[in-house]
Amino acid sequence: MTKPDDYLSSLFSLDGQATIVTGGTGVLGRAMATALASAGAQVGVLGRRGDAAERVASEIRAAGYDAFAISANVLDRESLIAARNQVLERCGKLNIVVNGAGGNLPAATIPETGGIFDMSIAGFREVVDLNLTGTVQSSLIFGEAIVKSGGGSVINVSSMAAGQALTRVGGYGAAKAGVENLTRWLAVELGRLHGGSVRVNAIAPGFFIGEQNRTMLVDAQQHPTKRGEAILARTPMGRFGAPADLAGALIWLCGPGATFVNGVVIPVDGGFSAYSGV
Are 22 and 51 in contact (CB under 8 A)? Predict the structure, then answer.
């Protein structure tokens, strides 16, 4: 008979699982790659710059886990196919992909002193392409390998901007809303066509300080900006997220403890999405 502690550990174990984290060189991508590796997975850290991906992979290896670098662009189909082949050659299979590549872009952000009519349509297209098209392409190319490997999980990354309108970042919000719909669609199609062997879910981070949004949330002294203060006022836990806060939800969604969880979006937001402001 399995001991209770062994059973609980098995629900959150990713031993022997081969994974890819796109956008693995960013603040959240690095944290998610580290979390997967700490749960026992072999982790391919995918980034556009191979040197940056190797730095993250080497940090993970230095902590005693298994990680390797992959250079690819989620908008370049051929580079993703090459990345898939690299993982299959090294690991012999692919079980999990985390679509962490994305983020907002300055060209798609309305200036603080500007208005909606100043929004760049070219910037809008670019941010939708990066977040939505990149997620679609990565899901399909890597998802095919997951099916052939016997099944696994696709994890997309959404945002608080998907479900609530945030000022100044309409393109990013539209793209992430598309990611959430895509998550449900892929869950239905892949589950229906492949006997439930592939699950597709998403994590919606709340407000975490990264390189892209740092100046919008904190000043040079790391004090909240006016926008940052407004966010914290709507976050019941009263703080910004720490990258490690994503680990528990991610490992759960990827592992045996969530084998009947499919097509859902899990907020990791300190209560932001639950608070009406009243």
Answer: no
Angle between helices 247-254 and 27-38 (to 10 degrees): 50
pLDDT score at 5: 73
Sheet of 198-205: strand order equals 67-71, 42-47, 18-22, 96-99, 152-157, 198-205, 265-268
pTM over 0.85? The answer is yes
Annotated active-site residue 275? The verdict is no
**Residue 37 CA neighbour count, 13 Å, CB half:** 25
Q: What is the pLDDT of residues 121-148, one digit of tens each?
A: 999 999 999 999 999 999 999 999 999 9
Which tokens sit at 61? Answer: 């290896």
Annotated catalytic residue within 7, 65, 172, 275? 172
Domains of the chain, earliest start first: 12-206+246-260 (3.40.50.720), 211-240 (no CATH)
